[in-house]
Structure to design on (553 residues):
């Protein structure tokens, strides 16, 4: 199969019914009418749905498994979930770099999906190992098998390694099937990101309803085995579309160079030429050069102007990215403390049927599924008629709206937790950690639903923003930047939990994250996150006012 590096599937041009600088999987020029567009992205969206069913089949109820069969404390389990989720969301930066530098997206997808499936197989196997081991002296079942724990965590992080590369490259590969030089396909690309997230949310909702129930009521082995089969289906769906995919043949000149080397060379050259006066360099530059980060213009003495502009484009994303990290911290709470909250509340539907606490995460997906069609078919046309912008509002306006909604979600979460604690006190349950607090779990639905609506604005906006604003060759990395917001957010959340746990449990005080949530103070933590999110929101708005969008390339 004569496919060159697949990391440059964009930047194509129309020529006599074919797409220039693009070939099919046989190495022949891509025919526009028979390749790319929705016919290709349909297979990719299907693969995304199956993959998300697999991933969230593990992630959404992981804290329950850690605190149940593995017998971890609340703080330790939350920390482990955040570390694992953070790793899975941070690794796309590494895989995106590998794909954009030399391996290519297609090959990266094949490699990482294989690692992903191997991890899921090992995870399912680990669940078959008995949870308890015998004490050698007393022959009493007293501790969790260390073999089980070791295999479990090895499998878990193998899943993270595979998932990190798979999701970054698959989404970029799907977007690359739309030629930006073709007006119709270019318009479809924005819609692609909306409906991709819609489809992903459908898969997540399905797994939260199915996998979580099976795990808590039937078997963890079956609950892990089904996601494994789903990931196998994902790879199969991706390979089914190979006849329709477009692969880039690469361009001439600088596109054969490592893009990271080019960008690094600009910064090194700017540092070396820092003593040159501005007047020695700037008059030599054409008028179309950007005026931001002018200190990099000194690199034009020894670097191509295109390379300088490329470095500026990447550097300008840093402040935006940093301001979004707080959203990632807030995002991490839905699979940890929200779930733990729900486990203490009245979860009964009937006298014999209890709703798994993790199932309420399905309301995030459900609100996304309901709101995306409203956004795409109602909000965008109305906004477009007012602003005259193709997407109705800019991607940065979309992201800022979502961040603001996430602040409201944390405020609601804090208020609900305050009511839960009051209910526990009123019924004398403060010292009864295993007792059910007589307060319906449905009180948590508003914060979950608002999370979902904020996702429609922020998460989809981040995908489109980072994909569109990085240089063409770095689009796997661009989507990785969006994913790393969630990854680093999970790391920071884990760090905050560890620090606060240590600070609030000294001198005999009750920790904010005590195992007995009726004595803990998750409400304090939620208020802290709401305040920090507001500061982040103000900073984000400040930086976006001076941001200059790059024209599509």
């Amino acid at each position: 199969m004569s496919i060159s590096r697949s990391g440059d599937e964009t930047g194509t041009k129309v020529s006599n019914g074919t797409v220039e600088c693009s070939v099919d999987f046989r190495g022949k020029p891509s025919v526009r009418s028979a390749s790319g567009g929705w016919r290709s992205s349909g297979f990719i969206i299907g693969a995304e749905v199956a993959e998300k069913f697999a991933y969230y089949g593990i992630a959404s109820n992981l804290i329950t498994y850690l605190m149940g069969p593995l017998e971890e404390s609340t703080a330790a389990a939350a920390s482990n979930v955040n570390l694992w989720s953070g790793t899975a969301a941070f690794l796309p930066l590494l895989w995106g770099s590998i794909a954009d530098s030399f391996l290519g997206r297609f090959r990266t997808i094949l490699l990482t999906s294989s690692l992903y499936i191997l991890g899921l197989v090992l995870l399912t196997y680990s669940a078959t190992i008995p949870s308890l081991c015998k004490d050698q002296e007393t022959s009493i079942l007293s501790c969790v098998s260390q073999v089980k724990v070791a295999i479990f965590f090895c499998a878990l992080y193998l899943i993270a390694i595979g998932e990190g590369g798979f999701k970054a490259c698959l989404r970029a590969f799907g977007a690359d099937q739309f030629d930006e030089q073709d007006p119709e396909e270019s318009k479809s690309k924005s819609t692609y990101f909306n409906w991709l997230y819609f489809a992903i949310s459908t898969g997540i909702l399905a797994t939260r309803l199915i996998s979580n129930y099976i795990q808590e009521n039937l078997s963890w082995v079956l609950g892990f085995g089904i996601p494994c089969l789903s990931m196998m289906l994902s790879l199969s769906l991706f390979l089914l579309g190979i006849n329709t995919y477009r692969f880039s043949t690469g361009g001439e000149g600088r596109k054969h160079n490592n893009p990271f080397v080019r960008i690094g060379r600009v910064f090194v050259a700017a540092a070396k030429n820092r003593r040159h006066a501005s007047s020695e360099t700037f008059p030599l530059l054409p008028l179309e050069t950007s005026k931001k980060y002018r200190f990099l213009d000194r690199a034009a003495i020894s670097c191509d102007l295109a390379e300088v502009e490329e470095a500026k484009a990447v550097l300008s994303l840093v402040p935006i990215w940093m301001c979004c990290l707080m959203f990632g911290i807030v995002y991490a709470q839905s699979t940890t403390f929200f779930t733990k909250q729900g486990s203490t509340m009245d979860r009964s539907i009937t006298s014999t049927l209890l709703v798994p606490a993790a199932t309420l995460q399905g309301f995030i997906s459900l609100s996304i599924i309901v709101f995306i069609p409203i956004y795409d078919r109602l909000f965008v046309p109305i906004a477009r008629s007012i602003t005259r912008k193709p997407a109705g509002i800019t991607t940065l306006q979309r992201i800022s709206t979502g961040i603001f909604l996430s602040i409201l979600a944390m405020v609601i979460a804090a208020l609900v937790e305050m009511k839960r604690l009051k209910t526990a006190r009123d019924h004398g349950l403060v010292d009864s950690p295993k007792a059910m607090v007589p307060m319906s779990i449905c009180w948590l639905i508003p914060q979950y639903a608002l999370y979902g609506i904020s996702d429609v604005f922020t998460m989809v906006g981040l995908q489109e923003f980072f994909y569109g604003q990085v240089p063409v060759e770095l689009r796997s990395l661009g989507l990785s930047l969006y994913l790393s917001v969630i990854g680093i957010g999970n790391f920071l959340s884990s760090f905050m939990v560890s620090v606060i746990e240590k600070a609030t449990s000294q001198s005999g005080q009750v920790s904010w994250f005590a195992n007995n949530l009726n004595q803990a103070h998750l409400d304090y933590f939620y208020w802290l996150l709401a305040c920090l999110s507001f500061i982040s929101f103000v900073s984000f708005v400040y930086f976006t006012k001076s941001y200059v969008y790059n024209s599509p390339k």
Notes: Confidence is low (pLDDT under 50) at residues 1-16, 138-142, 251-256. Residues 20-131+143-248 form a domain with the Growth Hormone; Chain: A; fold (CATH 1.20.1250.20). The chain is about 65% helix and 5% strand. The radius of gyration is 25 Å.
